[in-house]
Specification:
The protein is mainly α. The protein has two domains: about 80 residues, no CATH class; about 140 residues, no CATH class. It has ten helices and two strands, in the order E-H-E-H-H-H-H-H-H-H-H-H. Strands 1-2 form a two-stranded antiparallel ribbon. Helix 3 runs parallel beside helix 5, helix 4 runs antiparallel to helix 5 and helix 8 packs across helix 9. The chain starts with a strand and ends in a 37-residue tail after the last helix.
Length: about 290
């Protein structure tokens, strides 16, 4: 039986460009331990799975603390099961197995809390990368719009793009501070980061969509300030930021749009005339409504 804890520091290039920190790893040889004490094999398997999860999901101090905790736990199990010459191995008592299991439960609880916080940080970093990628993509899009002479205000257009992305970013930060935003850390850091990078693009798309809907008079009941460039710019940016901040608001606004404001009157009725009195309920208690 053997257990080794190693820490490999990153190179200067990895620390500078990849932001990597030291790699912590536990190496164990538990074959003889499992053969002599099969009653703790499931506990050792839990510890190994926990070690892989900690290495993949955590970084920094949280990773060091939990890896050290797992190292001490496995070392104590090996010491308790260390063979003695001339003495057959004594199985672990049920209360000892329950104690070891409770310690693993404590590790799992600490890991879940640390991994949730780490996933939120990774998600926020992915969103910042998405905002930077969106700003870089705005340059060729602007050149393409100028070349095709699209009849829109370029300043307001790109302002709505950035405002929608910032609205999505502020929405996530606000929900994180209120503890209402949770990320599934089980899927891995790279997946969380890639999904978060698309969030600013979604906010910018909603911001531009609201801009086009207001500019093209698709949304009724909202008057766009005319002949005032400053107010017009502020007007569209506020709506674009709100669209990126709350996608639900965009859905409700677009759902409430209508082609005209006139209400249709039922066929066979004269405008201004009073509606007929409702019929009385029948024997079943259900009011009969005329067809049409």
């Amino acid at each position: 039986m053997a257990i080794v804890l190693t820490a490999q520091p990153p190179s200067r290039l990895e620390k500078l460009f990849l932001f990597r920190r030291e790699r912590i790893q536990i190496y164990t040889d538990t074959e003889q331990l499992v053969r002599a004490h099969p009653e703790v094999s499931h506990l050792l398997h839990r510890a190994e799975v926990q070690h892989v999860s900690v290495r993949q999901a955590l970084r920094g101090l949280s990773q060091r603390l939990l890896v050290n905790w797992l190292f001490v736990w496995t070392r104590d199990v090996m010491i308790s099961a260390a063979p003695t010459e001339g003495v057959p191995p004594v199985p672990f008592e049920p209360h000892e197995i329950r104690r070891l299991d409770r310690e693993l439960d404590l590790m799992a609880g600490s890991y879940e809390q640390a991994a949730s916080r780490e996933a939120q940080i990774v998600y926020l970093g992915g969103m910042l990368m998405g905002v930077l990628a969106l700003c870089a993509l705005a340059v060729p899009v602007g050149l393409l719009l100028d070349e095709n002479k699209v009849p829109i205000d370029k300043t307001i257009f790109f302002g709505c793009v950035i405002a929608g992305a910032l609205g999505a970013l502020i929405s996530v930060v606000t929900r994180m501070s209120a503890d209402k935003f949770h990320v599934r850390h089980e899927v891995g850091r790279s997946y969380v980061q890639r999904v978060a990078a698309f969030r600013p693009f979604i906010g910018s798309v909603f911001g531009v969509l609201v801009y086009f809907a207001l500019y093209g008079d698709v949304i009724s009941g909202i008057n766009v300030p005319a002949m005032n460039p400053g107010k017009e710019f502020a007007f569209f940016l506020v709506f674009a930021f709100a669209a990126g901040f709350s996608e639900r608001m965009v859905k409700e606004v677009l759902r409430s749009t209508s082609g005209d404001d006139e209400r249709k009157t039922p066929a066979g009725t004269v405008p201004g005339a009073t509606s007929p009195a409702p019929r009385s309920a029948d024997a079943t208690g259900v009011h009969r409504v005329p067809d049409g």
